[in-house]
Every structure is written in C-alpha cells, then in structure tokens.
Amino acid sequence: MRERETVPRAAVAVLTIWLTAEALAVVAPLKFWSQYFLILLPLLTLLSSLALSIIAGRTVLPHLRLAAPCVLAGAVALVPLASTFNNTLSLLLNPDVPRRVAAVIRGDAGATT
User: Fold this and answer.
1) 17-65 pLDDT tens trace
2) CA quadruple 10, 16, 45, 37: dihedral sign
3) Which residues constitute the domain of residue 31?
4) Residue-wise over 93-111: b if at least 16 C-beta within 10 A, else e?
5) How confident is the model at residue 1 (pLDDT cuts 50, 70, 90)?
6) pLDDT at 5 over 50
7) CA separation, residue 25 to residues 11, 53, 54, 83, 104 (Å)
8) How many Å apart are CA 20 and CA 14, to the nearest integer?
9) DSSP H helix total and E strand total for the chain
10) Considering the chain, what percentage of its residues have pLDDT values greater than 70?
11) In a domain, 16, yes or no
C-alpha cells in the first residue's frame, strides 16, 4: 500500500495565518469594494496549486504525476480563455455596433442584418 502525500503542518499553519490576515484586511474597512479582494489572489493561487498537486498525487498514475498539475491548471485556464475567444469572435463577426444601434433607433430593420 502506498503512502499518501501530506502537506507539512508548518505550511498549513503559514497558509492559515496568511488567509486569516488577508480576510481581516478585506473585512476591516467594512467597505467591500472589488479592489480590496485583490489581495486574496496570491494566496488563492497558492492554495489552488496545492490542491491540484494533492489531487494529482492521489488520483493520477505514478509516471504521470509530474505532468498532471500542469494539465489540470491548463484545463482550468481554458474556461476564461474560451469566454474571451467567444466574445472576440462575436465582435469580429458583428462589426460596427454603433451603426447597428443607430439603425435600430431609426427603425431601419433591414440595416441591422
């Protein structure tokens, strides 16, 4: 039976303290503007990479374990990239939005197609 990989207790303690401090920094002003949440991104990145490594260590075949976190991270990164590609493609296929809006306002239905 193989041993399960575990995270060192010191790393868990550091990440817990860091998360607590950042959560307090976000909550302290009692004004939840979006820029206040940006300080959480580095820690959330570390936590997600740690989670990907643990998942890869427990579920992937031993000879594929080094590549698995990279493949999983790439798959996760494809979600916003697909959305960006879709938005870009729709802008390229439907150019000149102001002209189309003006045509709709004028009531010229034939100019919008």
Assistant:
1) 999 999 999 999 998 898 999 999 999 988 888 887 788 778 888 888 7
2) negative
3) 9-112
4) eeeeeeeeeebeeeeeeee
5) very low
6) yes
7) 21, 28, 28, 31, 48
8) 10
9) 4, 0
10) 90
11) yes
Residue 66 · residue 56 · CB < 8 Å? no
Is residue 112 within 8 Å of 103, Cβ to Cβ? Answer: yes
Instruction: Please report whether residue 4 resides in a domain.
Output: no
> Distance (Å, rounded) from C-alpha 113 to C-alpha 110?
6
Asked if residue 88 belongs to a domain, the reply is yes
Closest CA to 112 of 46, 101, 62: 101
Tell me whether residue 2 is in a domain: no
Query: Per the structure, how many domains does the chain have?
Result: 1
CA–CA distance, 58 with 52 (Å, rounded to integer): 10
Give the pair of three-digit tokens for residue 64.
Answer: 């594929």
Determine the length of the chain: 113
What does pTM read for this prediction? Answer: 0.55
Query: Helix 41-59 and helix 9-27: axis angle, to 10°?
Result: 150
